[in-house]
Amino acid sequence: MNGEPAFGLSFDPRALTDLLQAPSDIRDLALDRLQDVVNTELFGGRLAGDLEGYRKVYVDSRNAWRIVYAQRPAPVGSAHRTEIHVVAVRQRAGFDVYDTARARLGITARRTSARTHAARTRSPQLADTHRPVPKPGPPYAMPGLPQPANSPALSKGAHR
After folding, report:
1. Residue 19 DSSP one-character state
2. Dist. CA 56–CA 59, nearest whole Å
3. pLDDT tens digits, residue range 62-111?
4. Whole-structure pTM value
């Protein structure tokens, strides 16, 4: 490599604030990771669901801090054709980094996976909830089967 970064770098202004408010050791590590990303030495893991198209980079060795970014076309007149756009630099705890990224991107509700959606969907066989469901009778009330001696059917005079 010739020492030139392969990508430009841009920040959502709130992500820059995230970076500035992070502890100094995390800030230094995050800047090192971003340098590796723009130099194509590190590619973050792909995110799925409603953050599909974005990537994450682990900042620290405990994986407590993450960077969420996207690779996108650089603005016209930029020295690079593509840039790394940082959306959030935050802790993972409680999915804070992902919830923050969603909010900054204007994604208001979490999209569910196909499997989750299917599990939450009501069966079409149950669509008519006003129709009473027949309840099976006791197993001993089957016609042609012998009745037990203490059968409620006997007390009502069912057997003569």
Report:
1. H
2. 9
3. 889 999 999 999 999 888 999 999 999 999 988 899 999 999 999 886 66
4. 0.67
- Burial code of 110-134, b = ≥16 C-beta within 10 A, e = fewer? eeeeeeeeeeeeeeeeeeeeeeeee
- Concatenating the DSSP letter of every residue in 133-150 gives PPPP--GGGSTTSPPPTT
SS3 155: helix
8 A C-beta contact, residue 103 and residue 51: no
Question: Is residue 11 a contact partner of residue 85, using CB atoms and an 8 Å limit?
Answer: yes
Distances (CA, A) of 83 to 11, 36, 145: 10, 13, 79
Q: How far apart are CA 60 and CA 49, in angstroms?
A: 24
Cα-Cα-Cα-Cα torsion 59, 63, 66, 71, nearest 10 degrees, comes to: 70
